[in-house]
Amino acid sequence: MVAPVRRRQTPIAGARKAADVNHTFRSSPPLSRGAARQYAPSRAGPAAQYRHLAQIADGLLLLVAFPIAYFIKTRILPADLTSLYDPSVYIGPAAIFGLAALVSMERRGAYAPLAFLHLREMVLPVLLAFGQALLVGSTVLFVFKLGYVSRLFIALYALTGLGLVLLVRAGLRVLAARLRAG
After folding, report:
1. Mean pLDDT, residues 122-146 taken together
2. Residue 106 has pLDDT above 80, yes or no
3. Mean pLDDT, to the nearest integer, of 86-104?
4. Which residues lie closer than 8 Å to 89 by C-beta, 6 or more apart?
5. Which of 16, 31, 42, 160 could anchor a disulfide with 36, C-beta 3.0 to 4.6 Å?
């Protein structure tokens, strides 16, 4: 009987160990050029911090959109349209919507370095992110049976936040163009 040939086992679980010229093993393969560039540290200057500025501005705008949407619902719209509640009732669903919008904007590339220079790359990810966050907010209201929070308020909050974010992004677009030119 012939003995089977035993092959050398390679570690499969986790990261594969790559052999270098000296046949020693490293713990992980080297990063590709794109991955190394993606995690590069920010350099000094206003353009390097532009992404963080945009994220902070979007978060603050979604905080400002809450009282504006509540004001529209209570003062401008007819009172018989929906029943009115204390503003604290609306904070939870608005926070869920706001967080979903911010995370979705990050995942859709709304904070990419050149996203503010081109109108399509500036508007499309924001529109898709707010639409997705609106679906998340409506789903949470339905699943948790929060009937006392009106879907109208969530829609008003979404439209107010979307308008504010796009307005400020238009201003940031002008600022980015000036930074790039100068």
Report:
1. 88
2. yes
3. 88
4. 148, 149
5. 31
Q: CA geometry: angle at 127 spanning 121 and 131, to 5°? A: 150
More confident call, 162 vs 151: 162
Interior angle at CA 130, CA 82 and CA 132, nearest 5: 95
Distance of CA 48 to the CA centre of its chain: 19
Q: Is the pLDDT of residue 74 over 70?
A: yes
Assess contact for 25 and 8: CB atoms under 8 A: no
Q: What is the DSSP letter of 29?
A: P
Please tell me the predicted confidence (pLDDT) of residue 165: 94
137 vs 94: CA distance, rounded Å: 8
* Terminal alpha carbon distance of the chain: 80
Instruction: Tell me if residue 82 falls in helix, strand or coil.
Output: coil
Q: Residue 167: which residues within 8 A CB-CB, separation 6 or more?
A: none
Instruction: Decide if 55 contacts 111 (C-beta within 8 A).
Output: yes
How far apart CA 5 and CA 159 sit, in angstroms, is 68
Average pLDDT over residues 117-136: 90
Distance between CA atoms of residues 177 and 174, nearest Å: 5
